[in-house]
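REQUEST ID: PR-0412
SUBMITTED BY: lab tech R.K.
PRIORITY: routine
TASK: structure prediction, single protein chain
INPUT:
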Amino acid sequence: MRRMIPTSFSSKFQGVVSMNALRCYVSEFISTFFFVLAAVGSVMASRKLMAGDVSGPFSVLIPAIANAFALSSSVYISWNVSGGHVNPAVTFGMAVAGRISVPTALFYWTSQMIASVMACLVLKVTVVEQHVPIYKIAGEMTGFGASILEGVLAFVLVYTVFTANDPRRGLPLAVGPIFIGFVAGANVLAAGPFSGGSMNPACAFGSAMIYGSFKNQAVYWVGPLLGGATAALVYDNVVVPAEDDRGSSTGDAIDV
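STATUS: complete
OUTPUT:
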C-alpha cells in the first residue's frame, strides 16, 4: 500500500514552489545581484581611483556610499514582491520571527547566494586588471572579535528592517528602504577598516567563491545570522510586541 504524503507537508511544498513564490525568488536574485555588484564593485573602483592604496579614507568612504545607495535601491525594487531581504541575515531573522517559513527562507538563501556569485563573476570577467576583493579581518582583531562586530552590525541592520517594515508606523513605501540604506552605509563607515562591514553572508560568500579563498568565512556567517536572529526576537517580543491584528508585508505572499 502506497504511503500518502501528509497534507501539511504537501501544502507547504506547493506553497514554496508556486508561481507567486518563484516571483519572490527571482526578485531576491535581481535585487541581491544589483547590491553585490555595486558593493563589491565600489571596492574595486576605489582601488582604481587611488592607484591601489587600500589604507586611505576613500577606501572606506566610497564603499560606504555605494552600500547605502545600492541597498536602498535594491530593497525598494523588491519591497512589494519578496520583502526586499537582499541578505541571508535578514531572511534568517524573518524566519526566526515566524514571518516566513523555513523552506521559503532556504529558497531565499539559494537565490541570494547564486546572485552574489554571479555578480562577483561579472566583476571578475569585466575588470581583468583586478582580483575580486574579499572581506578581511584587520590585524588588530581576532576572528571572535570580528564575528561579534559583524553580529552587532547585523543586529542594527535587521532591527532597522523590522522597524521600517512595521505597518503600524504608517511610513510611505519609499521611506523604509532609505533608512535601511542609511544604516548600512553608517555600519560600513564604522567597521570597514576592522572587519569590512559586510553584514551580508551572501556578499561575503560570493566574493570568496570567485576569489578562491574561504578564510575566516565563518565570521561573516555566524555573526550576522546570530545578530539578525537576536534583532528579530528583540523587536517582536521585547520592544514592540506583536498584536493580534498585526500584519507584515515581508514574505506575506509566500508565508506557508
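NOTES: The radius of gyration is 18 Å.
REVIEWED BY: pending
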